[in-house]
Design brief:
Blueprint (H helix, E strand, L loop, with lengths): L3 H20 L3 H5 L8 H18 L4 H8 L9 H13 L18 H19 L4 H6 L1 E4 L3 E4 H23 L3
Antiparallel strand pairs: 1-2
Helix pairs in contact: 1-6, 1-8, 3-6, 3-8
């Protein structure tokens, strides 16, 4: 099961893995767009934008979440199932909503962006800790590709999404 502690460890691990990778690339690798894909800096800003929204979303009072998005009555989906749904959606042409699409990013901003990403991830985890295991399964939020998902599923998605960008970045830059 994907309990809160396991998910938090995964969120920390995926964010730190991504940030460590970004910390060790040069200016050209950070700013370069390969095959019309985002640069490493844009990937980082994309993840920051996502955490900014999530930090707001996880502050919404639970009764309001229930009114706005309904109460989840489904069993929580696993990391593997959510990953499969996400990959299938991407294969079918799903794209990031414009709010999450980053502008070009300069190498000079790399270190401050990494700090911002770490800070937002830490703040997000503090918010997660204010939700019980029951709350994570009961309440939902909208996801632009997956539809309404439980708070737990959105946490799992956030970790797998960071891993997805890390893996894509390694492929783009041809690094192990």
């Amino acid at each position: 099961m994907n309990n809160k502690l396991t998910i938090i460890k995964s969120l920390n691990s995926s964010a730190e893995q991504f940030n460590a990778f970004i910390s060790n690339i040069n200016k050209e690798e950070f700013e370069m767009n390969i095959n019309n894909k985002w640069s490493a800096g844009q990937d980082l800003v994309h993840l920051i934008k996502l955490l900014q929204i999530l930090n707001i979303a996880y502050l919404i009072p639970k009764p309001l979440l229930g009114l706005l998005y309904g109460i989840n009555k489904n069993e929580p989906r696993s990391f593997d199932h959510l990953q499969m749904l996400y990959k299938k959606a991407l294969e079918n042409g799903a794209k990031s909503p414009s709010i999450y699409i980053p502008k070009p990013v300069l190498f000079e901003d790399r270190d401050s962006l990494i700090k911002k990403h770490r800070y937002l991830n830490e703040q997000f985890i503090k918010k997660i800790n204010k939700h019980s295991e029951h709350d994570l399964d009961r309440y939902r939020l909208p996801h632009p590709i997956l539809g309404k998902v439980s708070l737990r599923e959105l946490l799992i998605f956030t970790s797998l999404h960071t891993i997805h960008h890390y893996e894509l970045l390694k492929l783009k830059l041809k690094k192990d």
